[in-house]
Write a structure and sequence with these properties.
Keywords: Signal. The structure is a single chain. The chain has 267 residues and is mostly beta strands. The protein has a single domain, classed as outer membrane lipoprotein receptor (LolB), chain A (Clam), CATH 2.50.20. Helices cover 7% and strands 36% of the residues. The strands form two sheets. A twelve-stranded mixed β-sheet has the order 9-10-12-13-14-3-4-5-6-7-8-15. Strands 2-1-11 form a three-stranded parallel β-sheet, with no helix packed on it.
């Protein structure tokens, strides 16, 4: 399968996208916000669920913690692999009820210059820039067409909700630790949700269980860590997300200094 690359404007870039399909193996050297590129997934036997001797099984307990965590304000930090020997890292805060997010993303490796982007969204106002010190660029999301390169969906910007929906079998490995598989077959998640926090990989699989995860919760029932491994014929992509500050004020507000995006962004 040949590669498909579509570069976005750097001032409004979001993340790199990779399409995972069985039977295809190519990779992209494009910066954040590129169109999908294909790598193949491998099948592996999923672990069986491990019910607790007394009380709910591991999957029920973990899903309850994930639901609790995704519906409140939280901070996140991510790091992980991207095809072509690249690395992605990021951090930010998200307030789902107020519809606000602040995030920084950085792509390095692959023999290319590092690419970074910063984004703040307050309701339907998006502010973007590449690095500290630059003037923010403002976009009115209400005027952006859904199929535009510059559209931004605040339904699930961190991918945590789609992660919850993809959880398959779960095994309890300790008092607050879990492992399991992600059900990513049949293109249900080709909008992308990994790594959680800074989605950078569009996941589409025609079969198999090529994605596994481990998760950790704290005594208060918040999810504090999610680690995902995606297998393909070239190796395994590893990515880690840590969550903190659950339920605390996000502090997200629009920048005090910004310029307006040019009209062609709304075409």
């Amino acid at each position: 399968m040949g590669e498909v690359v579509k570069s976005y404007h750097p001032a409004l870039a979001a993340a790199v996208a990779v399409l995972l399909t069985a039977g295809c193996t190519t990779s992209s050297a494009s910066p954040p916000d590129a169109a999908p590129t294909a790598v193949s997934t491998e099948t592996s036997a999923p672990p069986s669920a491990s019910p607790s001797p007394t009380g709910p099984d591991a999957r029920t307990v973990l899903l309850a913690a994930l639901e609790k965590s995704r519906n409140t304000t939280y901070r996140f930090a991510t790091s992980g692999d991207v095809p072509d020997a690249k690395k992605i890292s990021g951090s930010g805060s998200y307030d789902p009820k107020a519809r606000r997010i602040s995030v920084k993303v950085r792509m390095t490796g692959g023999g290319q210059k590092a690419v970074a982007t910063q984004r703040i969204v307050v309701g339907t106002d998006l502010y973007s820039r590449q690095k500290d010190g630059e003037t923010w660029v403002h976009l009115n999301l209400k005027k952006i067409k859904k199929d535009s390169l510059y559209a931004f969906d605040m339904t699930d910007p961190t991918g945590l909700s789609r992660f919850v929906e993809s959880v398959g079998r779960v095994t309890g490995t300790g008092p607050n630790t879990y492992s399991g598989t992600l059900d990513i077959e049949n293109g249900r998640f080709n909008e992308g949700f990994l790594p959680v926090g800074t989605p950078a990989i569009w996941v589409m699989s025609s079969g198999g269980a090529g994605a596994t995860f481990t998760a950790t919760t704290n005594p208060a029932g918040w999810v504090t860590s999610i680690k995902v491994s995606l297998k393909n014929r070239k190796g395994t992509l590893h990515m880690t997300t840590t969550l903190s500050g659950h339920g605390k004020a996000s502090g997200i507000k629009k920048p005090s200094d910004f310029g307006e995006a040019m009209d062609f962004y709304y075409d």
